[in-house]
Design goal:
Its main location: other. The chain is an alpha/beta fold. The protein contains twelve helices and 20 strands. The protein binds 2-acetamido-2-deoxy-beta-D-glucopyranose (5 copies).
Length: 437
C-alpha cells in the first residue's frame, strides 16, 4: 500500500519534472492570467512574463499605466478611464467615480444620504445597497459592481491588445478590510466583464509580494498605504509560506489632498498679502489648486519650486471688472513640510495601533513596505525611517506596488513559476480595522 503511494508520487514527480524541463526548450508561453488592481481612484492591470520573470504593468496607447476609476454615461456610449474623466466637467451627473467605496456594502439610510451629498451624481438607496442614477436619453440605475465591470473590461482589453491573446482569467486585489460580501461583489464585477477570478488577494499582501517578500525569510511585514484621501496600515505575519493579516488600522480622512489643501491655503494668503485681495473666483481657485498640486509633486524631487498663476482678482463690493494679475511665488520643501508637519506625524498613530494589536515591538518588524503616491514625500519617508530605525522598502513605484504583486500572484496561478516557492494568504475572518479620523 505504502509502496503504491510512493510509486504514484514518483510518477507525478517525474511528469512534473518532464513538463518543467520540456518547458525550458519551448518559447516562453504568453501569460494567460492577468493581475488586476481595481483601486478607488486608479486601476491598473499587470502580467507576469514567464520568459523574463518580469512583471509588466500594461500601458494604454499614450503610455499611461493607471487609468482613473471613473465611468461616464452619454446618450451614445459608456466610457471608462481617462475618457470618462474628460467628460466629468461637462457631464458630472452621469460620471461615476469612487464606486469602490460602495461595492458590496450595506448602509443605514442616513449614512448613505450623507455619503451621496458628497458627489455630483445621484446615489440611490436600494434596500440598503447603493445604486447610481443615470439620466441620458432615459433614466436608469446602475450598481457599483457594474461600474467596476466597465473598468475591468477596459483593463482586460488593454491586456489583450498588449498580449495579442484573449484573456479569461484573472487575480484581483481588494482592501484587507473587505468582508466576504464585498469580495463577492468584486468577483461579480469581474464576471460581468467576462473574467473568471482565480484568487482574490489583499492589497497589502500584494504589495509585500511586489518586493519578493514571499520568497525571502521574513516574519513581520508592515505595509503603509497612503493615497490621495486615506491611510491604511496593515501588519502581516508570514509563517510557513503563508501571509496572515495580523492587524489593520487607518485614517480615512488623511492623504495627499489634505497636504495640497494646506499648501493652497498658504498660497491664497500670499496672494492676499501681495495684492490686497483674497482670490475667490472659482477659476482662480481652480488654477491655484492645479499649481499647488504640481508644486507638491515637484517638491518631492526638488528643494524649491516656482509657481506662476494668472489670476483675475475680483475686488469685493466693487463693480470694477476683475483685476488681471500674474502671481509668481517660490515655494520651498521646508515650507511645505512645516505646513503639514502635524498631519505627517498623524501617520504614526495607526502604525502604533497595529503594533500594539499585533503584540509586536517596532524592532520586531522585519520589512516596511510603502504604497500609495503620498509615500513619495521625503519627510514622510523620514518620519517612518526614524520611527523604526531602518529604511523602508521603496524601490517599486508606490502607485504600482499592488498591481505588481497581483501580477506575480497571477503568474503563480497561471503556472508560470514551476518549482517556485509561493506565498498563500490565509483570510482572517475575525479581524476588524481600527479607523481614526
Ligand atoms: C439617444 O438619443 C440620440 C439622439 O438624441 C440617439 O442618437 C441615440 O441613439 C439615443 N441613445 C439611446 C441609447 O437610445
Ligand atoms: C431587503 O433586504 C433584507 C435584508 O437585507 C431582505 O431580507 C429583504 O428581502 C430585502 N428586500 C427586498 C425587496 O429586496
Ligand atoms: C460569497 O460567495 C460564496 C460563493 O459563491 C458563497 O458561498 C457565500 O455565501 C457568499 N457570501 C456572502 C456574504 O455573500
Ligand atoms: C520643478 O521646479 C524646478 C524649480 O522651480 C524647475 O526647475 C523644474 O523644471 C520643475 N520640474 C517640474 C517637473 O515641474
Ligand atoms: C527590501 O526588500 C528586499 C527583499 O526583496 C530586501 O532584501 C531589502 O533589504 C529590503 N529593504 C530595503 C531597505 O530595501
Amino acid at each position: 500500500m505504502a509502496g503504491e503511494i510512493s510509486m504514484i508520487g514518483s510518477v507525478i514527480l517525474a511528469l512534473f519534472l518532464a513538463g518543467y524541463l520540456g518547458q525550458q526548450y519551448l518559447p516562453p508561453p504568453k501569460p494567460k492570467v492577468i493581475g488586476l488592481d481595481l483601486g478607488t481612484t486608479f486601476c491598473s492591470v499587470g502580467v507576469f512574463h514567464p520568459g523574463s520573470g518580469e512583471v509588466e504593468v500594461v500601458a494604454d496607447e499614450e503610455g499611461r499605466r493607471s487609468i482613473p476609476s471613473a465611468v461616464s454615461f452619454t446618450t451614445t456610449a459608456v466610457l471608462a478611464g481617462h475618457e470618462a474623466v474628460d467628460l466629468a466637467d461637462s457631464n458630472p451627473q452621469n460620471t461615476i467615480y469612487d464606486a469602490k467605496r460602495f461595492i458590496g456594502k450595506t448602509f443605514e439610510p442616513e449614512v448613505l444620504e450623507r455619503e451621496s451629498a458628497r458627489y455630483p451624481f445621484k446615489v440611490i438607496n436600494n434596500n440598503g445597497s447603493a445604486e447610481f442614477e443615470i439620466s441620458t436619453n432615459h433614466t436608469f440605475t446602475v450598481s457599483p459592481e457594474f461600474i467596476g465591470s466597465r473598468l475591468l473590461l477596459k483593463m482586460k482589453k488593454m491586456a489583450e491588445q498588449q498580449l495579442g491573446v484573449p484573456i479569461q482569467k484573472a487575480v484581483i486585489s481588494v482592501p484587507a478590510e473587505f468582508d466576504e460580501r464585498q469580495r463577492n461583489y468584486t468577483i461579480r464585477a469581474a464576471n460581468l466583464a467576462g473574467l473568471e477570478i482565480l484568487r482574490v488577494i489583499n492589497e497589502p499582501t500584494a504589495a509585500a509580494m511586489a518586493y519578493g517578500l514571499h520568497k525571502v525569510d521574513v516574519l513581520n511585514v508592515l505595509v503603509v498605504d497612503l493615497g490621495g484621501g486615506t491611510l491604511d496600515v496593515s501588519l502581516l505575519n508570514k509563517q510557513g509560506g503563508m501571509f496572515l493579516t495580523r492587524a489593520m488600522a487607518g485614517n480615512n480622512k488623511l492623504g495627499g489632498q489634505d497636504f495640497s489643501q494646506r499648501l493652497l491655503q498658504f498660497t491664497k494668503e500670499r496672494v492676499t498679502q501681495e495684492f490686497g485681495v483674497t482670490p475667490a473666483l472659482k477659476e482662480d481657485i481652480h488654477r491655484l489648486r492645479q499649481a499647488v498640486e504640481a508644486a507638491k509633486l515637484n517638491l518631492t524631487v526638488h528643494p524649491t519650486t516656482n509657481i506662476h498663476v494668472p489670476l483675475h482678482l475680483q475686488i469685493q463690493d466693487s463693480s470694477d471688472p476683475p483685476k488681471k494679475v500674474m502671481f509668481n511665488a517660490e515655494i520651498t520643501r521646508k515650507q511645505f513640510e512645516e505646513l503639514n508637519e502635524d498631519l505627517f506625524q498623524k501617520i504614526l498613530t495607526p502604525i502604533k495601533i497595529v503594533l500594539a494589536e499585533g503584540y509586536l515591538e517596532k524592532e520586531e518588524v522585519d520589512e516596511i513596505v510603502l504604497v500609495g503616491g503620498s509615500t513619495r514625500i521625503p519627510r514622510i519617508r523620514k518620519i517612518i525611517t526614524e520611527f523604526f530605525g531602518k529604511e523602508p522598502n521603496t524601490s517599486v513605484d508606490p502607485d504600482l506596488a499592488v498591481v505588481t504583486g497581483v501580477a506575480i500572484q497571477a503568474g503563480i496561478m497561471g503556472g508560470s513559476w514551476p518549482l517556485q516557492v509561493s506565498a498563500l494568504e490565509i483570510p482572517n475572518r475575525h479581524l476588524r480595522k481600527t479607523n481614526l479620523n
